[in-house]
Amino acid sequence: MSPETITFTLNGQPARLEIEPDTPLLWVLRDELAMNGTKFGCGRGLCGACTVHLEGSPIRSCSLPISAVAGKAVTTIEGLSSAGDHPLQKAWVAENAPQCGYCQSGQIMSAAALLAARPNPTDADINAYMSGNICRCGTYPRIRKAIKRAAAEMAAAAVATWEPGQDADAAEVLS
Amino acid sequence: MTLSRRQFIRNASVAGGALTIGFSLSGCSEQQLPKQNAADFQPDSYLRVTPDGQVIAQIFKAEMGQGVLTGILSVLAEELEMEPASMRYEMAPPHPAFGDPEMIMQVTGGSNSIRLYYDTLRTVGATAREMLITAAVQQTGTPASELYAEAGRVRSRDSRVDLGYGELVATANTLAVPENPPLKQAADFKVIGRQNDRLDAQAKVDGTAVFGSDAPVENALVAVVLRCPHAEGSCGGWDASEAQQLPGVEDIFQIDGGIAVVARNYWRARKAAEAVSTNWQTGEAPLQSSEDIDVAFAAALEGDEFEVVREDGELPAEAGARTLSVEYNAPFVAHATMEPQTATAQPMADGGIEVWVGNQAPDVAQAYAAKGFGVGRDQAIIHNTFLGGGFGRRAAADNVYEVAQIVARVQQPVKLVWSREDDMRHDFYRPVMKARLRASLAESGDVESYTHQIVAPSINQKIMPHFLNAAMPAWVPHGVKSAIGNMQADTDHASVEGVADTSYQFPHFLVQYTNLQTVMPLGYWRSVGHSQNAFVIESFVDEMAHAAGRDPVEFRRAHLPENSRHRVVLDKVAAMANWEQPAAGRYLGVAVHESFYSVVAEVAEVSMEDGRPKLEKVYCAIDCGIAVNPDIVRAQMESGIIFGLTAALKGKITVKDGAVEQSNFHDYQMLRMSETPEIEVAIIDSQAAPTGVGEPGTPPAAPALANALFAATGKRQRDLPLQLA
Ligand code: FES
Ligand code: FES
Fold it and tell me: What is the pTM of this model?
């Protein structure tokens, strides 16, 4: 397989490289771009350690060839927030969620996608969304709590930034 | 720092109840870690203060999730009178100064870090604090009685003196080390017992934490290794002519232990490895399949080759009112650390090698780096990174040996990455075990006689040569090292721990053990022998209680010493779980077990849904002495319980022709969030010295669940893994 030029957007910045198109995104990130926050756990879509966002949706980067990323936007743990202070990251710290830490980039990226889809998730939502992410250290109870804490913080922040007229705009868009 | 100073620190750890081994295999344990900068104030290897005021601790134990980094900083900070979060830290290199007084080598294991080093670290912190105060006396002329340490500064009561520690470094460096620095009273603790926040959390949520394959090495090639799938097998030839032609491939060559494939990135290396044809041969060792192992172990259980490990009292002449005789089984299980084994290495300009790896025994790693690269140990630098899970797996340094050999050949930086399949199939497994339990009960239901026979392969016999290669001076021939490993086998405490040393009191109590070795490599798996032995003894005690028609909590209490910590945690967990009156439709099972000097009781609560049991909740009470970081203790109980439940419900490695049949998380499954019960933890209030935390949560989990399943279904399960259907 011969290399091709692939361009995509990585954490808001243009990325461009010569690479065999079958190479999974995970190894492009880690070995070609030295973006080491995304982890390798199984290589087969079974553990979630390699979770990143593609166009905002969570995907397992170990199983996605870079050819499928061409022209699209990828967000990794490094790009989730500018200073490691996304409400989920703060909640993870507040709940002492990480242990060895190895699974946590993937956990947080999955949780971020969950909250984007369901800002106020139930326990069942959290279980359903997060059960693709293995944590060998058994931090699940704290991840659950941290997701709820972050959801509450984000809801409070949304109320605080609400301005009159917003709802009417939204209603117009919907109608 | 003088030798006597070093000795003093050693003695301080004896005061903590630790066993100090009075010799060192390396012969130089009295050394101190050299100063990086002459201007620094470094009262001991564990700590230094820079002139610009940074207080930097050496993290001399492996941080693998258990929270030891926070623990070390907390204990030092307490006596140093500063916020732990304001300290800095470095991962310590392998150095004789950090040799574990119980395990000789610089090992992180046995849940002993805080237990062994609590007094030592307090003394180190107090020594530095007192010397900095004395320095302030000299610099300001203010009497010591007017000075105190606070928030990383030395201040006077009249506020005229207010000096940062950095401003006192030059003077402190000229002072003699005090022999008996006063330690703080527990009532004055600001950090110990209060510091809950993990100090490594931020790096672990923003992706910056460095693990073995994240080393800051430019232009590293990536290596994968093909290893013989048959334990103790060999390579009968290989052909890489096709693989060599694939894109991105740099080199393919044989090393001791496999065939290394080096390429530009992991994917190219993996693709090329798949194109290498190999001719692996099975070895000669006996017991290469799970079926054969089971047959041989059953025969051993019937045989009379047992060694008596412990016998109290005498076998009653007549059987009691009730007798029981049953058999328990536990399979091999894998560590399956979330991070597969990795390591990064590069050659150094001076001819040495530099390795980045997360390892529980960095001096073993150093020895293997030196051996693989072909240099002396003093030319092998180990940077211990964070560990992506350890659980005992990362006490071995097979990955370091591989990467060092690869770098020796390619003479460039290399990242070695094991696949999940590599990791699953080339682990050092928790041993398979078969046990026969017999009991005789009096009319009252009290135990008259208890016999526990164990057939299991010795862990030490298998793994000791791997460590001894590192710990022994290089001139000791390999045969001698193997012989030491064999000697260990006859008294392998790991096979009988949790049974031979139980606190249960039975008038006649007999423990017997037979070592029956299989082809499989063995290692230390979180809580080691306790993990399967607690399942057996605590399930069987439950069986005895039911046979006697007695309440399982009351029955345990009756056979445990009065005033024991066991009774305290049992009573606590029973209260938490509402043992006397469980909620309608809820079934409870209890287990209590001492390991690593801590005692933990757990209750599993099960419901029935459509005729199937469902694990709803686990209650846990632990007595671990002083809890330095209470929330980390709670987190470790949660972690240990989930680890124990995962093995109890899913863990089973099987072998055929010496090859592991499982490969990845689809056929060796982990507990998922949706299957994880709610967990509630209580820590018993204690002023006793700290005891183990990383492992003791694991042993009671399997038997508590098995006993709850019996309560819910009436069916006793004696084979791991347990079935929920
Ligand atoms: S590494 Fe991608 S899902 Fe496990
Ligand atoms: S924190 Fe270790 S695997 Fe999740």
Answer: 0.94
